[in-house]
Amino acid sequence: MFAFGLALFSLVLLGFSGAVVTVAFHLSRYSVPGDRTALVRNIFLAGSAIFFFAAVTAFTMVPWNELDSLR
Amino acid sequence: MLALHDNERVHGAYRKTWVVFATSGALALLFALAPLVLLVLTPVLSLPAAPVSAPLVTLVLMLWWWGVWTGAFFAFVNYYLDVFVITSERVIRIEQHGPFSRTIAELRLERVQDVTVEQHGILPTLLHYGNVRVQTAGEATAFVFRAIPHPIKVKEVVMEAHREALMRGPGPHAT
Questions:
Q1: B58 part of contact set with chain A, CB < 8 Å
Q2: So what CATH class is B82-168?
Q3: For residues B118 and A31, what is the distance between their CA atoms, to the nearest angstrom?
Q4: Where are the transmembrane segments (chain B) (predicted)?
Q5: 3-state secondary structure of A70
């Protein structure tokens, strides 16, 4: 169960991280002089970091062994 | 970053009205609230609650909200990176069509022949947004930027920049 969960979690993390990098790249590269793109990018990255660490923390706290007994 | 020529000044950079993003924003909010509604409704509707541990629910919630957050920003980038820039030398229209599709068009201010403002409908009239159409001499298709807030003021900025460009004469970057 843990191996399956880890594989799935890693895939999801990889996908979301790729999407985060894509959005941050666009906001960095395509700004216009005087706009607030940098602020928007920082807010987005801060939120993504919070969700990332919360997800990783929650994953490490899941009792995978007990889930096997629930099946 | 937009590359400006030497001595080129930006008169204004205009983005589409917030109304354009409102649907995507509302949808993102609905998706964000959906799991909370499900959690609240589960005991009320006597739905069989799955025998899962709190960390697993937290994990699923965090991943769900992260997905909604990223999806909302994808939609926001699509909206926010559509920009209409008026400089001292040219008018630049930048349109983001998706994560990997972008169009940048520009025209020299000296070639501007006519600027038209279009406001059709109840929402554009009440919320003061509309289309700005810039026509150049001899071009079949006009330069159009849609759903701009306060399009009449934008039109005035374009006309003023056009007058200044004509008085200054063609610069080193004129073609």
A1: yes
A2: mainly beta
A3: 27
A4: 18-41, 61-81
A5: helix
